[in-house]
Specification:
Blueprint lengths: L3 E2 L2 E3 L12 E3 L1 H6 L1 E4 L6 E7 L5 E5 L15 E5 L4 E5 L4 H4 L5 E6 L5 E7 L5
Parallel strand pairs: 1-4, 2-10
Antiparallel strand pairs: 3-10, 4-9, 5-8, 5-10, 6-7, 6-9
Length: 125
């Protein structure tokens, strides 16, 4: 099955951003994982929540291909606390996490419920 694409929510330079609800982590996301297309890893932040009754891990997968020369450091696995846990992940190193075709992959473990929101930081002025 193909991964589910989750779009960026851009931060607004010199402005504000009302807290978005994010994309619900359901059985499809748990089974297939998430893809962030046209990723800019160094400007990407991911917020993951967990509403299940047990702590759950979220994994940002190492990249494949010649651009991921730091992939040998392995995946980034972050525990998210039970019931009301919130974790912020990133920014990321392109040389470790970028997949072929400018993508980033995120995986969830069985039973994970909650939401994922992908933020894009603005370029410095």
């Amino acid at each position: 099955m193909p991964r589910t694409a989750v779009a960026y929510t851009p931060f607004v330079p010199n402005g504000h951003l009302t807290d978005p609800a994010g994309t619900t982590i359901d059985s499809t996301l748990v089974t297939n994982g998430v893809v962030i297309n046209n990723v800019d890893p160094e400007r990407t932040l991911i917020r993951v929540t967990n509403t299940s009754g047990a702590a759950k891990n979220v994994t940002v997968k190492t990249g494949t291909g010649s651009q991921s020369w730091m992939a040998g450091q392995g995946d980034s696995v972050t525990p998210v606390a039970l019931t009301s846990g919130v974790e912020w992940l990133g920014p990321f190193t392109s040389a470790r996490f970028q997949q072929d075709g400018s993508k980033l992959y995120v995986d969830f473990v069985s039973g994970h419920t909650g939401a994922i929101t992908v933020f894009k930081l603005p370029k410095a002025f």
